[in-house]
Design a protein that fits this description.
The complex is a heterodimer of chains A (about 325) and B (about 140). Chain A has about 325 residues and is mostly helical. Chain A is built from twelve helices and no strands. In chain A, helix 3 packs antiparallel against helix 10, helix 5 runs antiparallel to helix 6 and helix 6 packs antiparallel against helix 8. Chain A starts with a helix and ends with a helix. In chain B, the strands form two sheets. Chain B has a five-stranded parallel beta sheet with strand order 2-1-3-5-7. Chain B is globular, with a radius of gyration of 15 Å. The structure holds iron/sulfur cluster.
Chain lengths: ~325, ~140
């Protein structure tokens, strides 16, 4: 890619500009589906943008008890981390090269843990007892969902034998989507992604009927808006990661090779983002049909069930691999 | 243009914080009923928020008792500008049957400025949504 192209890739499409508007759309879809599952009408289309602008225009209060610098830095760091994480996910192939390098799966996973830490710091430094309880819960929750999440996303890397998202995608472009070899890992990844995003059934850190607003209790105005945008973008990145690893990224069974060069690129991007919408739909369905766990139930669920199951999945893949049933 | 956008988005997304300043609980039950799926307040962008820092509208129910007065003022001051107060129910509007009781200050407007009154004992769920929507329309037209 030329420098101009990489700049456009980062800033316009599919980078910051497109990603944020797409994330708002995903929030709308999520809330609308959630409402429809409950037989409600649901919010209008512009709702996420209206919320965002309204929060930006509101007064921004920093409580006296809060550690000022950390309090302001947390939302920006979190948002920057998730925006950066998306750049490493191969959305389209320019000049039939998938932009990727060895080990970018690790980079994305690493960047995806930063939002949780930002939320923890936000709650901890806000000087509010509810915020601190929420922050502790966020960390306890993190050590329980992070391990099965990583193990589940390790499965595709094991099958392909590479840590590169591009190579994993390339493997699926020619042959079969990896969901066929690792169905269990997909389920675990989706469930734990729900925990990562702090949504039902794992919205323990900001359980509003128990601890008001959780770590974000003291936040208002601009910073709250950034936090909400961060959670939306994180949802998109998580869903996009699952699509890339298990559902063949922008792959569709049909081949577009006889079209002019720009059409396949566009179509690929459209296919990719439609697939992401499906994952968002599944996340909304989970949110609609379950109730909240207690924190100890959540820990025991992930240590008793999710981790053993994901280990079993990995053993299964290793057996397949050394048995020679995988190409 | 920018001003207009901000105003429109304010009207489109009123987040509500609910505060009981001494009500008999009838009004509170009615508020929860208004937020249930049947009436679906979210289609107007109304969300119930636990923290006053997140809220735009403070929904107060009941007359202000001596004990609650300080706390009501504190909660009000914790909300970021621009903020609105809705007095919900007959007691919150005027003090109603509790007027003159030894522990009651009177209506909400004796303590903090109120932007809208929703009368009724308790008001119907339709009335609360109507009150909130009217408040926001009035706000849109006023400036
Ligand atoms: S208005 Fe009626 S229902 Fe509401 S607090 Fe007063 S007495 Fe109770």
């Amino acid at each position: 890619m030329t420098p101009i192209e990489s700049l456009i890739y980062m800033l316009v499409f599919p980078g910051f500009l497109f990603l944020t508007s797409y994330a708002f759309f995903c929030q709308y879809l999520d809330r609308k589906l959630y409402a429809r599952f409950q037989k409600r009408v649901g919010p209008p289309f512009i709702q996420p943008i209206a919320d965002f602008i309204k929060l930006l225009a509101k007064e921004d209060i920093v409580p006296k008890a809060a550690d000022n610098r950390m309090f302001s830095a947390a939302p920006i760091v979190g948002l920057a981390a998730v925006l950066t994480a998306f750049i490493f996910i191969p959305v389209l192939a320019l000049h039939s090269v998938i932009p990727s390098f060895e080990g970018d799966l690790i980079v994305v996973l690493y960047l995806l843990t930063i939002p949780t830490l930002a939320i923890f710091l936000a709650g901890w430094t806000s000087g509010n007892p509810f915020g601190q309880v929420g922050a502790m819960r966020a960390i306890v929750q993190m050590i329980s969902y992070e391990i099965p999440f990583f193990l589940a996303l390790l499965a595709p890397a094991l099958i392909v034998g590479s840590w590169s998202l591009g190579r994993i995608l390339d493997y699926q472009l020619g042959g079969m989507w990896l969901v066929i070899f690792a169905p269990l890992a997909v389920i675990i990844a989706i469930v734990t992604l729900q925990g990562k995003l702090e949504r039902l059934p794992f919205d323990i850190p900001d359980a509003e009927t128990e601890i008001v607003g959780g770590p974000l209790t003291e936040y208002s105005g601009r910073r709250l808006a950034l936090f909400r945008a961060m959670l939306d973008v994180e949802m998109v990145v998580g869903a996009a990661l699952i699509v890339t690893l298990f559902f063949g990224g922008y792959d569709l069974i049909i081949s577009f090779s006889d079209l002019p060069w720009y059409l396949p690129v566009l179509l690929n991007a459209v296919i990719f983002f439609v697939k992401v919408l499906f994952i968002v739909g599944i996340l909304a369905l989970i949110k609609a049909v379950v109730a909240r766990y207690r924190i100890d139930q959540m820990v025991s669920l992930s240590y008793r069930w999710l981790i053993p199951l994901s280990v079993a999945q990995i053993v299964f893949i290793v057996v397949l691999k050394f048995g020679g049933w995988l190409i | 243009m920018f001003e207009k956008m901000v105003k429109l988005s304010r009207v489109k997304s009123p987040w509500v914080c609910h505060f009981n300043s001494g009500s008999c609980n009838g009004c509170d039950i009615e508020i929860i009923a208004a937020l249930m799926p049947r009436f679906d307040a979210e289609r107007f962008g109304v969300l119930l928020k636990g923290s006053p820092r997140h809220a735009d509208v403070l929904l107060c129910t009941g007359p202000v008792t001596g004990q609650m007065k300080e706390r009501l003022i504190k909660i009000y001051e914790q909300m970021p500008e621009p903020k609105f107060v809705v007095a919900f129910g007959e007691c919150a509007c005027t003090g109603a049957v509790y007027t003159g009781a030894y522990n009651v200050e009177g209506g909400i407007d004796k303590v903090i400025p109120v932007n809208a009154y929703v009368p009724g004992c308790p008001p119907k769920p339709e009335a609360i949504l109507d009150g909130v929507v009217k408040l926001l329309t009035a706000f849109k037209e006023s400036e």
